[in-house]
Amino acid sequence: MNRILAISAAMVISLGMVSSPAMAGSNPCNPCGMKKSANPCSMKKAANPCNPCSMKPSKGQWGTPGNTAIREHTFDNFQQAADLGKRMWNDESLGTSGLACLSCHADHDLLNLDRNQNFPHFVKMVGDVVTLDQMINYCMLNPMKGKPFAKDSKELTAMAAYYRAYRIQYQREHRK
Question: Which range marks the domain in which residue 13 is found?
Answer without folding.
Answer: 2-34
